[in-house]
């Protein structure tokens, strides 16, 4: 009887160990409106995405953007080589969300683990940027078009920020959302392809 109980306990421990570590992913949020590249991979809308399809919330990299943070060409993946597929422009072929220049829009994040937050910031590409090239700082407007300070508060599991999309935009663009964490050296990066 003692051997049987020990065998059962060892078996349960072996089953439970992977489950105990399954929830310890380091990343914790992504935009789903407009859907980010990570969200599109997770939903199976886009294939050939590598690991990001299972971890859309994990695009975490150094904060301080644009003065610091991920290098040019690695911004959409937060500088994380595991998710380099997010930096691949796919010839300008990522699916887009239709927007109207100057419209009010609700930008939504899905958050799986809340952090004390400095702010959420939203950048957009300049007119004339090349959607067939990886994202660079020079391709973005220099200032965010929407900045939402949090002053160290923790967001909920769904966060929506209402903002006005810049006027004068036409054609394909990319919106970069940056969630700055207050109590770590990191931020979360989320790229969404849109069309005006």
TrEMBL record:
Residues 28-194 form the Chitin-binding type-4 domain. Residues 1-22 form the signal peptide. Keywords: Signal. InterPro entries: Cellulose/chitin-bd_N, GlcNAc_Chitin_IntDeg, Ig_E-set. PANTHER family: CHITIN-BINDING TYPE-4 DOMAIN-CONTAINING PROTEIN, GLCNAC-BINDING PROTEIN A. This is Chitin-binding protein. Gene3D superfamilies: chitin-binding protein cbp21. It comes from Allostreptomyces psammosilenae.
